[in-house]
Amino acid sequence: MQQLRENGHRLRFVTNNTTHSRRRLAEQIRGFGIELADEELQTTPTAAVHALKGKRVLALTMPDIVEDLGEIELVGEGADAVLIGGADETFETNQVFSYMNLARAFAELQAGAELYCLHKNRWWQTARGPLLDSGAFVAGLEYSAELEATVLGKPSPAYFQAALDALDSDAELTWMVGDDIEADIAGAHACGLKTVLVRTGKFRPDSVEVARVQPDGIITSIAALPGWIETAA
Questions:
Q1: Cis (ω within 30 of 0) for the bond into 45?
Q2: Which of 149, 151, 197 is nearest to 175 (CA)?
Q3: I need a labelling partner for 218 at 20 to 30 A (CA). Which of 32, 103, 143, 210 fits?
């Protein structure tokens, strides 16, 4: 990251992570040796606060991100909106996405609440391998309540536009770098950004082969990005 900064690039870290608060996630990233200011990190709870301010919200999210939802009125019933967060590897996932909680969410939707989700990821990469993510629960609620959820994180156009606004940059002059062919690459491409796919994390060669959108470049590691982007730009 330091080399990119020295080369004159402005950075914005955009994540669909819903298991840690922005404060904790920024500390974790800095722990990897990456220079990062908290305001450079864009998280989905931030987008949720912007979209849901003034509404009564039933939120099925991991407890750690509740501190980032402080400006939203969280309720157990009589909600204007239902917000679905992401899963993690702890037992808390069983409690958050229990049958009774999902049934409560369904009841609120039946009563007229709107459905929002921090993301709609099908799965996520962990030390144990791919694990089911909350996109399955979002799809189930959409099917049962016969409505469509508003996605607040990637690949939502509004989420990428917020990053562009923060960078004060035009889409065609901005690169999105990520390992998710759907959320990162296809989402950014739809907003006019140039894209680089990294062969780590969620990268799967077979997914790239059948993807409707292809990246502008593929690199083996984020460490290769500074040199690669200078020749591609």
A1: no
A2: 197
A3: 32
Sign, CA torsion 200/205/206/210: positive
Is 197 within 8 Å of 217 (Cβ atoms)?
A: yes
> Could you write out the three-class secondary structure of 111-152?
CCCEEEECCCCCEEEECCEEEECCHHHHHHHHHHHCCCCEEC
Give the Cα separation of 233 and 174 in Å (integer): 10
**Which residues are paired to 151 by β-bridges?**
117
- DSSP-assigned letter for residue 15: -
Rounded-to-10 torsion of CA 179, 61, 40, 192? 50
| Interval 90-103: pLDDT, tens | 889 999 999 999 99
Judged by DSSP in three states, 177 sits in: strand
Q: Taking the model in full, what pTM does it have?
A: 0.80
